[in-house]
Amino acid sequence: MEGKANGPTGGRTGRVIDGPTNPMVTPLLNDLYQFTMAYAYWKAGKHEERAVFDLYFRKNPFGGEYTIFAGLEECIRLIANFKFTEDEISFVRDSLPGSCEDGFFSYLRGIDCSDVEVYAISEGSVVFPKVPLLRVEGPVAVVQLLETPFVNLINYASLVSTNAARHRFVAGKSKMLLEFGLRRAQGPDGGIGASKYCYMGGFDATSNVAAGRLFGIPLRGTHSHAFVSSFMVFEVDKSLLFVVVVVPGHTYIYCVLIYLSTLQSPDEIIEKSLKSSDGLHTCEDFVSLVQTWLNKIQWSSSFSGIFGETNQSELAAFTSYALAFPKSFLALVDTYDVMRSGVPNFCAVALALNDLGYKAGGIRLDSGDLAYLSSEARKFFRAIEKEFGVTGFEKMSITASNDLNEETLDALNKQGHEVDAFGIGTYLVTCYAQAALGCVFKLVEINNQPRIKLSEDVSKVSIPCKKRSYRLYGREGYPLVDIMTGENEPTPKVGERILCRHPFSESKRAYVVPQQVEELMKCYWPGNSGEQREDLPPLKDIRERCIKQLELMRPDHMRRLNPTPYKVSVSAKLYDFIHFLWLNEAPVGELQ
Ligand SMILES: Nc1ncnc2c1ncn2[C@@H]1O[C@H](COP(=O)(O)OP(=O)(O)OP(=O)(O)O)[C@@H](O)[C@H]1O
Ligand SMILES: O=P(O)(O)OC[C@H]1O[C@H](OP(=O)(O)OP(=O)(O)O)[C@H](O)[C@@H]1O
Ligand SMILES: O=C(O)c1cccnc1
Ligand SMILES: [Mg+2]
Fold it and tell me: Which ligand is nearest to the CA of 369?
């Protein structure tokens, strides 16, 4: 995407980092309290104190035991271009109490993120609760201003990419997954974000054209019921009318044949000619060719009893669509009746296209029992292939949509179905099963002093200190445990036994002899540290990473029902330190 190209460079390629995809992402996309705190830090002369914050979540979403980390690139784009405009400074001034001193606004005018360091897990990684996704270090007032936008940029991105990964897991690798959610998403940014992060989480394509343009995501689409019902072809409805005439002594019964409506025929289709796929000849009346095929299907003994007269308006709609898109004709077949009209009509058009050397794209089902209808449609295609000797017709693609979600995909799998592609909207993009991931941004160190946030709820106690984290892999190649250590502790070594402790539960611990050790956080924004900055990979690479990482997980962590929790631990040294600090900070209660 082309954004404003005035941000800092750095990194291996030295490429300029564009601004955030959404121009609404500015330093003002923030909670007021970040500004009041920034002011109070400044007033207290604390604003330059060096602080370390961890961004993490506490619980995996959707009742699962894994999460996909997404949104990092947008965070880096924000800090690379983090600068207040004069207008923004005036607005902050107007929003804070009049007593705030001018010096603060001069300070705001001067700040950027050149002295901030961001270490992060690579985007698209499988991640777990409590392990920092990002570690942000810098002047406390500046880093404080990053809390809300960072959490905002990561929360939904990670939630929806996890949702996408879960849908992929249930659907299976071989199915095509299409994200159809734009109309149902929470506003324009929700729609764009959903398309980007569902692709990252393993979807194949989106219907969202803007997202296709912004991120290079493959675009796919069919057509809607409106297109089918916009065609009106009144069929000749012949009815017999019995007229009884009674005259004295006689009763006459007349039988009259009446025409209830006039035939308009597919005359709505004006341009009926279609060139063959090789361009060598032209079929002057494709409409009649379709009609001929429909008659052949109707009169074939293989289909007797399955359907009679099909809906002619639907046939006209399909024919028109095929004339518009002969190379990729796809039809929504459930407007009137899937098996009595939609599928036979589709087949007539597909066979006519086949005569001209084109291969039809398939059908979409958007209502009814998708397991049953997809199986019936497949049988019909098989019968067509057999009857008319059209090789490959049986394999015609079947797309299904209509309020699909993990549960319905799972139910379809259990019943057996013939769907090749799923179009999923509402449940996917709104993350219907869970509204938010609940990422937090907690201070873990200031001026080299570790900080802890206590809570009645142990799971909410923060893990203090500037840390490193590692993923330890076992003999079978699966990740076994993530471990956090203090920054200066030695790196766990392959083949060397290390004690991994649950951060809060004394009895939960295990020795691990890692076969592979992966350091999780890399430098994505070096500030003044002189570190090499990791480049921001293209979306396609992040998606591939995500798919590979998911494949690497032990299956029992991934299953939908009662998955095994993945272990997240701390080193023995960090464990001792957490508990020392805990006891130090927690006041001793007094019982009366
Ligand atoms: N075989 C199946 N097993 C489980 N769920 C299914 C199956 N087929 C479809 N579904 C789901 O059942 C729901 C059916 O939706 P609904 O009750 O609105 O009926 P509909 O088919 O959409 O009817 P309408 O003709 O009114 O559009 C959808 O969520 C769909 O995904
Ligand atoms: O069902 P979702 O998972 O949200 O997927 C997107 C839906 O959007 C479209 O129609 P729309 O719902 O607008 O109209 P319809 O229900 O009448 O088909 C499409 O036909 C899908 O059903
Ligand atoms: O292309 C489609 O079939 C489509 C796109 C968006 C929503 N529903 C369906
Ligand atoms: Mg619908």
Answer: 1
Q: Which residues have any ligand 1 atom within 6 Å of their CB?
A: 367-371, 402-404, 408, 411-412, 415
Instruction: Determine which helix (DSSP H) or strand (DSSP E) holds 373, and give its type and residue range.
Output: helix 370-388
What sign has the CA pseudo-torsion 534, 535, 538, 539? Answer: positive
Domain with CATH 3.20.140.10 in the chain: 11-217+432-585
Contact by Cβ (8 Å): 333, 365? yes
Residues of the chain with pLDDT under 50: 1-6, 10-11, 259-264
pLDDT tens sequence across 139-181: 999 999 999 999 999 999 999 999 999 999 999 999 999 999 9
| Percentage with pLDDT > 70 across the chain | 92
The fold for domain 269-400+411-418 equals TIM Barrel (3.20.20)
Ligand with smallest separation from the Cα of 182: 3
pTM for the model stands at: 0.93
Residue 364 Cα: closest atom of ligand 3? 3
The answer to whether 314 and 346 have CB atoms below 8 angstroms apart is: no
Q: Ligand 1, closest atom to CA 368?
A: 21
Q: Name the CATH architecture for the domain at 11-217+432-585.
A: Alpha-Beta Barrel (3.20)
Q: Is 490 helix (H, G, I), strand (E, B) or coil?
A: coil
Candidate from 195, 217, 220, 224 with most ligand 3 atoms within 8 A of CB, to mutate? 224
